[in-house]
Amino acid sequence: MNSSVPHAASAGASTSAGALSPARTAIAEARRVVVKVGSSSLTTAEGGLDASRLDALVDALAARCGAGSQVVLVSSGAIAAGLAPLGLAKRPRDLATQQAAASVGQLQLAHAYAASFARHSLTVGQVLLTADDVVRRAHYRNAQRTFSRLLALGVVPVVNENDTVATDEIRFGDNDRLAALVAHLVGADALVLLSDVDGLYDGDPRLPGSSLIPEVLGQSDVDGVDVAAVGSGLGTGGMASKLAAARLAAAAGIPVLLTAATAAAPALASAAVGTVFAATGPRMSARRFWLAHAADAVGRLHLDDGAVAAVVGRRRSLLAAGITAVDGDFEAGDVVELLNAAGAVVARGAVAFDAVELPALIGHSSHELPPEQRREVVHADDLVPFP
Protein backbone atom coordinates (compact mmCIF):
# COMPACT_ATOMS: atom_id res chain seq x y z
CA MET A 1 0.00 0.00 0.00
CA ASN A 2 1.20 3.56 -0.56
CA SER A 3 0.57 6.64 1.49
CA SER A 4 -2.54 7.40 -0.54
CA VAL A 5 -4.52 4.70 1.25
CA PRO A 6 -7.49 6.62 2.74
CA HIS A 7 -7.43 4.89 6.12
CA ALA A 8 -3.73 5.54 6.71
CA ALA A 9 -4.52 9.10 7.79
CA SER A 10 -6.35 7.81 10.83
CA ALA A 11 -3.44 5.65 11.97
CA GLY A 12 -2.86 7.63 15.13
CA ALA A 13 -6.46 7.46 16.25
CA SER A 14 -7.53 5.11 18.98
CA THR A 15 -9.61 2.11 18.01
CA SER A 16 -13.13 1.64 19.24
CA ALA A 17 -11.94 -0.91 21.76
CA GLY A 18 -12.69 1.44 24.64
CA ALA A 19 -10.90 0.19 27.76
CA LEU A 20 -7.84 -1.76 26.82
CA SER A 21 -8.44 -5.45 26.22
CA PRO A 22 -6.21 -8.02 27.93
CA ALA A 23 -4.20 -8.45 24.73
CA ARG A 24 -3.62 -4.70 24.35
CA THR A 25 -2.72 -4.43 28.03
CA ALA A 26 -0.20 -7.25 27.62
CA ILE A 27 1.41 -5.46 24.70
CA ALA A 28 1.48 -2.10 26.48
CA GLU A 29 3.13 -3.69 29.53
CA ALA A 30 5.44 -6.12 27.71
CA ARG A 31 8.95 -6.25 29.11
CA ARG A 32 10.50 -7.40 25.83
CA VAL A 33 9.05 -6.28 22.49
CA VAL A 34 9.93 -7.13 18.91
CA VAL A 35 8.99 -4.38 16.43
CA LYS A 36 8.97 -4.92 12.68
CA VAL A 37 8.91 -2.09 10.13
CA GLY A 38 8.60 -2.44 6.36
CA SER A 39 10.55 -0.85 3.52
CA SER A 40 7.77 1.46 2.39
CA SER A 41 7.58 2.98 5.88
CA LEU A 42 11.25 4.00 5.81
CA THR A 43 11.97 5.00 2.23
CA THR A 44 10.82 7.43 -0.42
CA ALA A 45 8.91 6.30 -3.49
CA GLU A 46 12.09 6.76 -5.54
CA GLY A 47 14.21 4.70 -3.18
CA GLY A 48 16.59 5.97 -0.52
CA LEU A 49 15.96 6.43 3.17
CA ASP A 50 13.51 9.00 4.47
CA ALA A 51 15.37 10.48 7.43
CA SER A 52 12.30 12.06 9.03
CA ARG A 53 10.37 8.78 9.00
CA LEU A 54 13.30 6.84 10.39
CA ASP A 55 13.87 9.38 13.17
CA ALA A 56 10.18 9.34 14.12
CA LEU A 57 10.30 5.56 14.42
CA VAL A 58 13.47 5.67 16.50
CA ASP A 59 11.94 8.30 18.79
CA ALA A 60 9.04 5.92 19.54
CA LEU A 61 11.38 2.95 20.10
CA ALA A 62 13.65 4.99 22.35
CA ALA A 63 10.65 6.12 24.41
CA ARG A 64 9.69 2.47 24.95
CA CYS A 65 13.27 1.68 25.99
CA GLY A 66 13.18 4.63 28.36
CA ALA A 67 10.01 3.20 29.92
CA GLY A 68 11.95 0.07 30.87
CA SER A 69 11.31 -2.33 27.99
CA GLN A 70 13.87 -4.17 25.91
CA VAL A 71 13.30 -3.65 22.19
CA VAL A 72 14.39 -5.70 19.18
CA LEU A 73 13.84 -4.03 15.80
CA VAL A 74 13.32 -6.12 12.68
CA SER A 75 13.81 -3.66 9.84
CA SER A 76 13.33 -4.04 6.14
CA GLY A 77 14.75 -1.40 3.83
CA ALA A 78 18.24 -2.51 2.82
CA ILE A 79 17.41 -3.21 -0.82
CA ALA A 80 15.14 -0.16 -1.08
CA ALA A 81 17.83 2.04 0.48
CA GLY A 82 20.32 0.87 -2.13
CA LEU A 83 18.19 1.79 -5.14
CA ALA A 84 18.91 5.52 -5.30
CA PRO A 85 22.70 5.24 -4.74
CA LEU A 86 22.87 2.69 -7.57
CA GLY A 87 20.65 4.73 -9.86
CA LEU A 88 17.95 2.05 -9.98
CA ALA A 89 14.42 3.28 -10.66
CA LYS A 90 12.65 0.34 -9.02
CA ARG A 91 13.28 -2.80 -7.01
CA PRO A 92 15.28 -5.21 -9.20
CA ARG A 93 13.82 -8.60 -10.07
CA ASP A 94 17.01 -10.61 -10.42
CA LEU A 95 18.72 -11.97 -7.32
CA ALA A 96 22.22 -10.69 -8.14
CA THR A 97 21.08 -7.07 -8.43
CA GLN A 98 18.94 -7.40 -5.30
CA GLN A 99 22.02 -8.61 -3.44
CA ALA A 100 24.10 -5.74 -4.82
CA ALA A 101 21.45 -3.22 -3.74
CA ALA A 102 21.32 -4.84 -0.30
CA SER A 103 25.10 -4.60 0.00
CA VAL A 104 24.99 -0.86 -0.60
CA GLY A 105 21.75 -0.18 1.25
CA GLN A 106 22.53 -2.20 4.37
CA LEU A 107 25.45 0.09 5.22
CA GLN A 108 23.27 3.16 4.79
CA LEU A 109 20.50 1.65 6.88
CA ALA A 110 22.82 0.60 9.71
CA HIS A 111 24.53 4.00 9.77
CA ALA A 112 21.19 5.82 9.79
CA TYR A 113 19.92 3.75 12.72
CA ALA A 114 23.16 4.13 14.68
CA ALA A 115 23.09 7.90 14.26
CA SER A 116 19.39 8.22 15.07
CA PHE A 117 19.52 6.03 18.20
CA ALA A 118 22.66 7.91 19.33
CA ARG A 119 20.43 10.98 19.76
CA HIS A 120 18.90 9.05 22.68
CA SER A 121 22.25 7.71 23.93
CA LEU A 122 21.31 4.20 22.77
CA THR A 123 23.67 1.76 21.09
CA VAL A 124 22.50 -0.51 18.27
CA GLY A 125 23.86 -3.81 17.06
CA GLN A 126 23.25 -5.24 13.61
CA VAL A 127 22.07 -8.85 13.33
CA LEU A 128 21.77 -10.25 9.80
CA LEU A 129 20.03 -13.61 9.52
CA THR A 130 19.30 -16.14 6.81
CA ALA A 131 16.71 -18.87 7.11
CA ASP A 132 19.59 -21.28 7.75
CA ASP A 133 20.24 -19.49 11.05
CA VAL A 134 16.75 -20.39 12.22
CA VAL A 135 16.33 -23.75 10.51
CA ARG A 136 19.58 -25.28 11.78
CA ARG A 137 19.26 -26.10 15.46
CA ALA A 138 22.85 -25.14 16.37
CA HIS A 139 22.53 -21.80 14.53
CA TYR A 140 19.19 -21.17 16.26
CA ARG A 141 20.76 -21.63 19.69
CA ASN A 142 23.71 -19.42 18.77
CA ALA A 143 21.33 -16.68 17.64
CA GLN A 144 19.48 -16.97 20.95
CA ARG A 145 22.70 -16.47 22.88
CA THR A 146 23.69 -13.48 20.76
CA PHE A 147 20.36 -11.72 21.26
CA SER A 148 20.39 -12.49 24.98
CA ARG A 149 23.82 -10.93 25.43
CA LEU A 150 23.04 -7.87 23.32
CA LEU A 151 19.89 -7.15 25.33
CA ALA A 152 21.71 -7.74 28.63
CA LEU A 153 24.25 -5.12 27.54
CA GLY A 154 21.48 -2.59 26.84
CA VAL A 155 21.92 -2.75 23.06
CA VAL A 156 18.99 -2.42 20.64
CA PRO A 157 19.43 -5.25 18.09
CA VAL A 158 18.48 -4.23 14.55
CA VAL A 159 17.63 -7.35 12.57
CA ASN A 160 17.27 -7.89 8.85
CA GLU A 161 17.43 -10.80 6.48
CA ASN A 162 20.94 -11.10 5.07
CA ASP A 163 19.87 -10.25 1.54
CA THR A 164 23.47 -9.91 0.38
CA VAL A 165 24.09 -13.66 0.62
CA ALA A 166 20.61 -15.22 0.87
CA THR A 167 19.54 -17.29 -2.12
CA ASP A 168 16.03 -18.25 -3.15
CA GLU A 169 16.51 -21.56 -1.34
CA ILE A 170 17.38 -20.01 2.03
CA ARG A 171 15.19 -16.91 2.14
CA PHE A 172 12.54 -16.20 4.74
CA GLY A 173 10.46 -14.68 1.94
CA ASP A 174 9.44 -11.63 3.94
CA ASN A 175 10.45 -9.92 7.16
CA ASP A 176 7.01 -10.40 8.72
CA ARG A 177 7.68 -14.12 9.13
CA LEU A 178 11.23 -13.33 10.23
CA ALA A 179 9.84 -11.02 12.93
CA ALA A 180 7.49 -13.71 14.23
CA LEU A 181 10.35 -16.20 14.42
CA VAL A 182 12.63 -13.67 16.12
CA ALA A 183 9.87 -12.82 18.63
CA HIS A 184 9.85 -16.39 19.87
CA LEU A 185 13.61 -16.81 19.55
CA VAL A 186 14.24 -13.89 21.93
CA GLY A 187 11.38 -14.77 24.28
CA ALA A 188 9.44 -11.60 23.47
CA ASP A 189 6.29 -10.71 25.36
CA ALA A 190 4.77 -8.91 22.36
CA LEU A 191 5.20 -8.38 18.62
CA VAL A 192 4.36 -5.08 16.90
CA LEU A 193 4.06 -5.08 13.10
CA LEU A 194 4.31 -1.59 11.61
CA SER A 195 2.99 -1.15 8.10
CA ASP A 196 1.65 1.57 5.83
CA VAL A 197 -1.93 0.59 6.67
CA ASP A 198 -3.37 1.23 10.13
CA GLY A 199 -4.62 -2.29 10.78
CA LEU A 200 -6.50 -5.27 9.37
CA TYR A 201 -9.70 -4.44 7.50
CA ASP A 202 -12.66 -6.60 6.54
CA GLY A 203 -12.17 -5.50 2.91
CA ASP A 204 -9.83 -3.47 0.74
CA PRO A 205 -8.90 -0.48 2.95
CA ARG A 206 -8.70 1.74 -0.12
CA LEU A 207 -12.42 1.33 -0.76
CA PRO A 208 -15.36 2.94 1.06
CA GLY A 209 -17.27 0.65 3.37
CA SER A 210 -14.26 -1.29 4.66
CA SER A 211 -14.02 -1.40 8.44
CA LEU A 212 -11.08 -1.86 10.76
CA ILE A 213 -11.10 -5.10 12.74
CA PRO A 214 -9.94 -3.92 16.20
CA GLU A 215 -9.31 -7.32 17.75
CA VAL A 216 -8.74 -10.88 16.53
CA LEU A 217 -9.38 -13.53 19.15
CA GLY A 218 -9.26 -16.54 16.82
CA GLN A 219 -9.55 -17.80 13.27
CA SER A 220 -13.28 -17.15 13.07
CA ASP A 221 -12.62 -13.40 13.39
CA VAL A 222 -10.72 -13.33 10.09
CA ASP A 223 -12.65 -15.93 8.10
CA GLY A 224 -13.64 -14.40 4.79
CA VAL A 225 -11.32 -11.39 5.14
CA ASP A 226 -9.70 -10.48 1.80
CA VAL A 227 -6.01 -9.73 2.33
CA ALA A 228 -4.95 -9.91 -1.31
CA ALA A 229 -4.29 -6.17 -1.58
CA VAL A 230 -1.09 -5.14 -3.35
CA GLY A 231 1.94 -3.78 -1.53
CA SER A 232 3.89 -0.61 -2.14
CA GLY A 233 6.37 -2.06 -4.60
CA LEU A 234 9.38 -1.40 -2.37
CA GLY A 235 8.91 -4.38 -0.06
CA THR A 236 8.11 -8.06 -0.44
CA GLY A 237 5.37 -8.43 2.16
CA GLY A 238 1.69 -7.55 2.04
CA MET A 239 -1.26 -7.89 4.36
CA ALA A 240 -1.35 -11.65 3.71
CA SER A 241 2.19 -12.05 5.07
CA LYS A 242 1.40 -9.88 8.08
CA LEU A 243 -1.70 -11.91 8.87
CA ALA A 244 0.30 -15.14 8.56
CA ALA A 245 3.01 -13.77 10.85
CA ALA A 246 0.46 -12.60 13.40
CA ARG A 247 -1.17 -16.03 13.44
CA LEU A 248 2.20 -17.74 13.86
CA ALA A 249 3.18 -15.57 16.83
CA ALA A 250 -0.28 -15.66 18.45
CA ALA A 251 -0.38 -19.45 18.19
CA ALA A 252 2.90 -19.53 20.11
CA GLY A 253 1.51 -17.40 22.93
CA ILE A 254 2.72 -13.96 21.77
CA PRO A 255 0.13 -11.16 21.36
CA VAL A 256 0.53 -9.06 18.22
CA LEU A 257 -0.34 -5.47 17.32
CA LEU A 258 -0.66 -4.48 13.66
CA THR A 259 -0.81 -0.79 12.81
CA ALA A 260 0.75 1.97 10.71
CA ALA A 261 4.35 3.08 11.16
CA THR A 262 3.02 6.63 11.55
CA ALA A 263 1.30 5.39 14.71
CA ALA A 264 4.46 3.90 16.21
CA ALA A 265 4.39 6.26 19.20
CA PRO A 266 0.88 5.39 20.46
CA ALA A 267 1.36 1.75 19.46
CA LEU A 268 4.42 1.43 21.67
CA ALA A 269 2.98 3.56 24.48
CA SER A 270 -0.62 2.39 24.98
CA ALA A 271 -1.23 -0.16 22.19
CA ALA A 272 -4.63 1.53 21.72
CA VAL A 273 -4.39 1.65 17.91
CA GLY A 274 -4.64 -0.75 15.01
CA THR A 275 -5.59 -4.41 15.17
CA VAL A 276 -4.55 -6.62 18.06
CA PHE A 277 -4.22 -10.39 17.81
CA ALA A 278 -4.70 -12.13 21.13
CA ALA A 279 -2.50 -15.10 21.95
CA THR A 280 -4.34 -18.25 20.88
CA GLY A 281 -1.95 -20.91 22.11
CA PRO A 282 0.35 -21.62 25.05
CA ARG A 283 3.89 -20.34 25.15
CA MET A 284 6.07 -23.01 23.57
CA SER A 285 9.57 -23.98 24.59
CA ALA A 286 12.22 -22.84 22.13
CA ARG A 287 12.75 -26.40 20.96
CA ARG A 288 9.05 -27.10 20.33
CA PHE A 289 8.64 -23.82 18.48
CA TRP A 290 11.67 -24.65 16.36
CA LEU A 291 10.21 -28.06 15.55
CA ALA A 292 6.79 -26.63 14.69
CA HIS A 293 7.62 -23.48 12.76
CA ALA A 294 11.31 -22.91 12.09
CA ALA A 295 12.90 -26.16 11.04
CA ASP A 296 12.68 -27.45 7.48
CA ALA A 297 10.85 -30.77 7.21
CA VAL A 298 12.84 -33.11 4.97
CA GLY A 299 10.51 -36.13 4.98
CA ARG A 300 7.00 -37.39 5.63
CA LEU A 301 5.56 -40.24 7.64
CA HIS A 302 2.02 -41.39 6.79
CA LEU A 303 0.02 -42.61 9.81
CA ASP A 304 -3.02 -44.79 10.31
CA ASP A 305 -6.01 -43.51 12.27
CA GLY A 306 -4.88 -45.11 15.50
CA ALA A 307 -1.49 -43.45 15.37
CA VAL A 308 -3.07 -40.06 14.61
CA ALA A 309 -5.34 -40.44 17.65
CA ALA A 310 -2.36 -41.34 19.84
CA VAL A 311 -0.07 -38.58 18.57
CA VAL A 312 -2.58 -35.72 18.34
CA GLY A 313 -5.27 -36.71 20.83
CA ARG A 314 -3.18 -38.27 23.58
CA ARG A 315 0.21 -36.64 22.87
CA ARG A 316 1.94 -40.02 22.71
CA SER A 317 5.13 -41.00 20.92
CA LEU A 318 4.90 -42.35 17.39
CA LEU A 319 5.67 -46.08 17.08
CA ALA A 320 6.51 -48.01 13.93
CA ALA A 321 3.23 -49.94 14.11
CA GLY A 322 1.22 -46.81 13.27
CA ILE A 323 3.19 -45.85 10.15
CA THR A 324 1.81 -46.83 6.73
CA ALA A 325 4.35 -45.21 4.37
CA VAL A 326 7.55 -43.15 4.33
CA ASP A 327 8.54 -40.34 1.93
CA GLY A 328 11.83 -38.48 1.66
CA ASP A 329 15.54 -38.94 2.26
CA PHE A 330 16.32 -38.10 5.88
CA GLU A 331 18.60 -39.11 8.71
CA ALA A 332 17.96 -39.67 12.40
CA GLY A 333 17.52 -36.28 14.05
CA ASP A 334 15.97 -34.59 11.01
CA VAL A 335 12.53 -33.00 11.21
CA VAL A 336 9.67 -34.76 9.41
CA GLU A 337 5.96 -34.12 8.93
CA LEU A 338 3.37 -36.63 10.14
CA LEU A 339 0.32 -37.01 7.89
CA ASN A 340 -3.08 -38.57 8.42
CA ALA A 341 -4.83 -40.87 5.94
CA ALA A 342 -6.21 -37.85 4.06
CA GLY A 343 -2.73 -36.42 3.54
CA ALA A 344 -3.10 -33.52 6.00
CA VAL A 345 -0.15 -32.63 8.24
CA VAL A 346 -1.12 -33.38 11.84
CA ALA A 347 2.26 -33.02 13.55
CA ARG A 348 5.98 -32.42 13.12
CA GLY A 349 8.84 -34.00 14.95
CA ALA A 350 12.46 -35.13 15.01
CA VAL A 351 12.71 -38.68 13.71
CA ALA A 352 14.88 -41.29 15.46
CA PHE A 353 15.63 -43.45 12.40
CA ASP A 354 17.18 -42.95 8.97
CA ALA A 355 14.76 -43.13 6.05
CA VAL A 356 16.41 -46.31 4.76
CA GLU A 357 15.72 -48.09 8.06
CA LEU A 358 11.99 -47.44 8.33
CA PRO A 359 10.43 -49.43 5.46
CA ALA A 360 11.37 -52.70 7.15
CA LEU A 361 9.89 -51.51 10.47
CA ILE A 362 6.59 -49.89 9.58
CA GLY A 363 3.45 -51.70 10.62
CA HIS A 364 5.30 -53.87 13.15
CA SER A 365 4.68 -53.84 16.89
CA SER A 366 7.67 -53.20 19.13
CA HIS A 367 7.85 -56.82 20.33
CA GLU A 368 8.22 -57.94 16.70
CA LEU A 369 11.35 -55.82 16.18
CA PRO A 370 14.97 -56.51 17.10
CA PRO A 371 15.89 -55.13 20.55
CA GLU A 372 18.05 -52.34 19.10
CA GLN A 373 15.08 -51.06 17.08
CA ARG A 374 12.45 -51.14 19.83
CA ARG A 375 12.36 -47.38 20.28
CA GLU A 376 9.96 -44.64 19.34
CA VAL A 377 10.16 -43.45 15.74
CA VAL A 378 9.35 -39.94 17.01
CA HIS A 379 9.47 -39.47 20.77
CA ALA A 380 6.72 -37.39 22.37
CA ASP A 381 9.33 -34.92 23.66
CA ASP A 382 10.47 -34.33 20.06
CA LEU A 383 6.98 -34.04 18.58
CA VAL A 384 4.59 -31.09 18.13
CA PRO A 385 0.99 -32.07 17.24
CA PHE A 386 -1.30 -29.72 15.36
CA PRO A 387 -4.78 -30.22 16.90
Automatic annotation (TrEMBL):
Chain residues that bind ATP: 36, 195-196, 236-242
Keyword rRNA-binding in annotation: no
Entry-linked PROSITE patterns: GLUTAMATE_5_KINASE, PUA
Keyword presence, Transferase: yes
Highest taxon above the source species: Bacteria
Physiological role: Catalyzes the transfer of a phosphate group to glutamate to form L-glutamate 5-phosphate.
HAMAP family: ProB (MF_00456)
GO BP field: L-proline biosynthetic process
Any GO CC annotation of this UniProt entry: cytosol
Annotated ranges, domain PUA: 299-378
InterPro entries attached to this UniProt entry: AceGlu_kinase-like_sf, Asp/Glu/Uridylate_kinase, G5K_ProB, Glu/AcGlu_kinase, Glu_5kinase, Glu_5kinase/COase_Synthase, Glutamate_5-kinase_CS, PUA
Single GO MF annotation: ATP binding
Family the entry assigns: Belongs to the glutamate 5-kinase family.
Keywords for this protein: Amino-acid biosynthesis, ATP-binding, Cytoplasm, Kinase, Nucleotide-binding, Proline biosynthesis, Transferase
Gene: proB
PANTHER family for the chain: GLUTAMATE 5-KINASE, ISOPENTENYL PHOSPHATE KINASE
Protein name: Glutamate 5-kinase
Native organism: Allokutzneria albata (Kibdelosporangium albatum)
EC code: 2.7.2.11
Protein localization: Cytoplasm
Reaction(s) catalysed by this chain's protein: L-glutamate + ATP = L-glutamyl 5-phosphate + ADP
Pfam family, one: AA_kinase
Binding site for substrate: 76, 163, 175
Pathway(s) where this gene product acts: Amino-acid biosynthesis; L-proline biosynthesis; L-glutamate 5-semialdehyde from L-glutamate: step 1/2
Chief place where the protein resides: cytoplasm
